[in-house]
Every structure is written in C-alpha cells, then in structure tokens.
Amino acid sequence: MPDNHPIAQEELMAYLDGELSPDRAATAADHLDHCRECQDVAADLQGVSRRLMAWSVEAPSVQITEAMVAALAEPRQKSTRQISRGSKWVIGLVAACVVALVLASVTPRMMPQRERFGAPQPNAKRIRQSMALLEPSATVDAVRTQNPMIAHTAQLTLTTREFEKARGAVEDILKRHKGYIGHLNVYAPAGAGRSLDATLRVPADQLDPMMAEIKRLGHVEMESQSGEEVTSQYIDLDARLTNARNTEQRLTDLLRQRTGKLADILSVEIELGRVRGEIERMIAEKKSLTNRVDFATLNTTVREDYQAMVPARPFSVFARFRNSAVDGYRSTVESMIAAIAFLLAFGPVLLVWIAILFFPARFVWRRVRRDPTH
Amino acid sequence: MISDEALMLDFQRGSRPAFEELFARYHEPLYGFFRRRLASEESADDLTQETFLAVIRATARYEPRALVRTYLYGIAFKLLAAERRKRTRDQPADLCPISGDDCDDRLWVRQAIERLDTNDREILMLREYEQLSYAEIADLLRLPVNTVRSRLFRARMELKNILAPAQGEA
Questions:
Q1: Would residue A28 count as lying in a domain?
Q2: A-chain residues near B160 (CB < 8 A)
Q3: Relative orientation angle of helices A66-73 and A88-105, to the nearest 10 degrees
Q4: Do B60 and A45 touch (CB under 8 A)?
Q5: Pairwise CB contact (< 8 Å): B131 & A256
Q6: What is the CA angle A219-A223-A224, rounded to 5?
Q7: Structural domain count of chain A
Q8: B159 touches chain A (CB under 8 A)
Q9: Under an 8 A CB cutoff, do A123 and B14 touch?
Q10: I need a labelling partner for B94 at 20 to 30 A (CA). Which of A161, A163, A370, B74 fits?
C-alpha cells in the first residue's frame, strides 16, 4: 500500500472482518470514506466473500441419536476414546438395551428423577467438585461472589542498624512466601542513613505471616493495614462482561446473515470491533481486580539507624596552620585562574568595545577640558 | 440470548435442554464444516455425531477458557484429521469430489478453493464458512494471529484473481 494510505490492505481486510482494534477501525473507516482505491480493495474482498457463499451445503439430517442419549445417561468421567465406525452399531445396541432395562426397572415414583437428564445427583456433585479443582474461572467466580472480595493493603516502616542484612532478609522472606517485588528502591545519600522503599505483592493469606517475619528485622516505627471490599465492583464488572459478550454474539450472528447493504454490514462490524475492545478492557480490569484480591500489597520502608562518625581527636595547632596555609595557597591560585579565565572569556569583547569607544571618548574628553565652565 | 459458554456450564451441571440448545446451534455449522471437507454426506453426518458424542463424554473436563465454538471446532478438527488419515490409508480419495449436482457458481468456487495452498485454504474456509475470528483460527491451527491475517489476505487475493476470469466468462 502506498504511503498516502494510513492503513495497510491487510488491515483494511481485518477492518471489514471486524478484527481491527477500535482506534485503527476508526482510522480505517475515515480513510475508506474518501479513498477510491481502498474502496475498490474493500469491494474486491467483499466480492470474494459473497462469491464463496455460493458453495452452500445441504441441510444435515443429523439429530440427537440414541448413541448420544446413551452417552448423556453415562457418568461424565469416562474417557473420550474415539469409537470406531464398525463397532458403533454394537455400542448403540448395547446402549439401547441398557436404556430399556433402566426404564423398565425404575418405579413410577422415580420418574421425576429420571427426567433430570441422566446424570444422577451424586454425579452432578462430583462434576461440581472436579470443576472446582480443575477450573479456576467459572466455579471460582461463583465462590468469589459468595464470599466478600477484599483487596488488602499494608504499610510497614522499620529502622535497623544492619541495613544490608535486612535488605537480603526481605528478599528471602518474600521468596519464601511466594510473593514478588512490585518495585524496590534503595537510597544511599552521603552523610545520612540508607533506606529501602519497596512495594511487595504476596498471596493474601501470606500477608500476616510475612509481616510478622519482616517486623523481626528491626524496630517497627509504623504499621498499618487496610482492606477494600471490591465484591460489588467485581459483580458489576462480571455482569457488564456477560452483557458485552451477549452483544458480541448477537452482532456476530447478524453478520453471519450478511443480507444487508454494505454500509449496514460495515456499521455492524464497527460496532462489533467496539464491543470486542470493551470486552478486552473489561477482561483486563477483571484480571487486575482478581490480582488485587489474590495478592495483598505491602508497602515497606526500611531505614538504617544512622550514627554520624565523630573524629577520634581534635586537630593540632601545627595541623591547623598547615591547613590554613594550604587553603590560602589554594584560594590565591584559584582567584588567579578565575581572573585569567575571565580575561580569556571576555577580553576579546572588551578590546572590541574599547576600540569602538576610544575615539568618541577622547573627543568628548578634549571638549570637556576646553570648556571653560569646567 | 444465553451465551454458548453459559449453556455449556449448564450442561456440565446436568441440564439436558442446555445440550439440546447447543446441538441446535451447532449441528448445522459442524455438518457444513465436515461436508465441505469430506466426500460424502454420510461421513459428514457421522463425524458431526461423533463430535457431539465427544463433547458429551468430555463434559466433566470442559474448561471455559476458550469459546465453546473454538472448543467444538477443535474437536471437529481432530476427528477430521483422523478421518483423513484413515481415508488415505484405505483409499486415496478426493477431499470433496465434484458431483453432477453442483451448479456453475458452486463448481467455480470449489475449484477455485481447491487451487489454493492447503494451509491458506484451511484458514480461508474457517473464516468464510465457519466464521471464526482470527484469534480462534490461530488457536485452532496453532499459528500466530498475524500469520493467520496475512495468509487469509493472500488467499482472498488469490481467490479474487482465480474467480475473476471465471466471472468474466460467465
């Protein structure tokens, strides 16, 4: 694509497919409005998609088969081993027999249970348990919203005489509690004590034991803890995310039909891009919120207990004279160097001005001397 | 409308209507997926059923990390690969032989698609017929999204060139 096009042809295609980020999509839409060449490319791409639709397939005759019904009635933990085509009828026959036997053996009072779609209660419970173990997302979400979600933050300020040792110990403690460093700064100003300023992230349940260990590294000057409940924020975000996903699904379904005008399709695709951008943003926000809850934040400051060094004994009189002489010599040399440096820096300029002003000044001076009033 | 993922989780909890809804939503697209890639209607029917059987049997292990659609096409892809291996072993057959029932337009399109590079063709078909997003295709074929985008563009441009003379003749 030549330089005068702000988007590449691939991006143009991605835009038509609703796959461009919202900001790039806006650029693409603007450009497409007035660029004839890109309109042609877009028309070509749309044309190809339209022509491909000619390859339609007949309606399927697939229905929910007996094999599926039998599989639905089986306990869910079984393996997904592939069934060979040859043995399918045997399995189907066996499954049908099993279903018939089960139906014949159950009493009428158990009928409502049978309508519970195969899986008996213990099995459903087992599935829920296995989900809780395997799936960190959906089940954990449910658990999260049942219990209050608290984002913990703590502050701890210490002073210590063994700064180096304390610094190493903080890192060891953090590692032991499976935490990580958010940021860490060490200051070592001249003539003052060193200090360490760190933001530590640690699994929420490890916050208290870790603080207890860190407190042992020195004298505690300040300690504070706070907790922010984010349950409602999380639930709200989750609901908005679900809605956005539903909207995305609806828009995708709308696009599948592709019966509208090109302008309509484009506007649906722009909307789809916007919704996808929102979904990504909300997912990131949700992840960040979860991270804040799962990992507590500990802001730690460790200061060195600094003691200024006192000279061992006062200077002698001779040493003072010698020091004064050295200072006097240094001042003389430095003032001469400064004067020479000044002359070098401003000498040429002064010479120029003297040359310019010399004759007018002499003229004025002579006039003044001749003036009888003076 | 309830999302596919919510339906799948309902199904995991034992809801038969949830499965029936998923079946209603996906049996036709999945059949189309197999039908365009296999020689016979019967094979497409069988593999569509096998896909749903696999879903039923693996319900307990389903983890909603990806879209249900990607999950289903992932299973379908594996079944298709197994079928192709079997067919190559048993009898080398055309992917989807052209029959007398094909109308002109359909014939042109199929012939044009068959002329594409195998990888490009798969990406194009997943996008055009299965309507998968670039990210879903990348996930399915284990490719970077940018590669999917550039191959898709190449395939579409090539297809445009292939179809253009045919259109002219028409």
A1: yes
A2: 44-45, 47-48
A3: 60
A4: no
A5: yes
A6: 175
A7: 2
A8: yes
A9: yes
A10: B74
Cα–chain-centroid distance for residue A30?
30
CB contact under 8 A, A249 and B4: yes
Q: Using CB atoms, pick whichever of A72, A134, A249 lies closest to residue B56.
A: A72
Strand spans (E) along A145-251: 150-160, 180-187, 195-203, 219-229
Separation CA B157–CA B159 (nearest Å): 5
**Residue A205 is assigned to a structural domain of this protein:** yes
6-35 of B, contacting A, C-beta below 8 A: 6, 9, 12-17, 19-20, 23, 27-28, 31-32, 35
The ipTM estimated for the assembled molecules is 0.82
Q: What are the two backbone dihedrals, phi and then psi, of residue A231, each rounded to the nearest 5 degrees?
A: -60, -50
Distance from CA of A245 to the nearest CA of B (A): 8
Domain boundary among A285, A304, A323: A304
Q: What residue in A sits closest to B102 (Cα-Cα)?
A: A55
Burial class for A258, CB neighbours closer than 10 Å (0-12, 13-18, 19+):
middle
pTM reported for the whole predicted model = 0.45
CA atoms of A40 and A37, how far apart (whole Å): 5
| Interchain pair A13, B152: CB under 8 A | yes
* Under 8 Å between Cβ of A291 and A284: no
Mutation pick from B4, B40, B59 vs chain A, by most beta carbons of A within 10 Å, is B59
In a domain, A30, yes or no: yes
**CATH assignment of the domain containing A202:** 3.30.70
Helix/strand/coil for A199: strand
Digitized pLDDT (tens) for each residue of chain A, 374 residues in all: 445 788 888 888 998 888 888 888 888 888 888 888 889 889 888 888 888 888 888 877 767 877 788 777 765 544 444 444 545 565 566 666 556 665 555 444 444 433 333 333 333 343 344 333 333 444 445 545 556 788 888 988 888 888 888 888 888 888 888 888 888 888 887 777 888 888 888 888 888 888 888 888 888 888 888 888 888 788 888 888 888 888 888 888 777 766 667 777 788 888 888 888 889 888 888 888 888 888 889 888 888 877 665 555 667 888 889 999 999 999 999 999 999 999 999 999 999 999 999 999 999 998 877 655 45
Q: Which of A304, A323, A345 is the last residue of a domain?
A: A304
With an 8 Å Cβ cutoff, are B113 and A252 in contact? Answer: no
Judging contacts by C-beta atoms under 8 Å, the chain B residues touching residue A73 are none
A31 in a structural domain: yes
Q: Which domains does chain B have, with CATH numbers?
A: 1-97 (1.10.1740.10), 99-170 (1.10.10.10)
Tell me phi and psi for residue A20, to 5 degrees.
-100, 150
Residue numbers of the domain that contains A219: 148-231+297-304
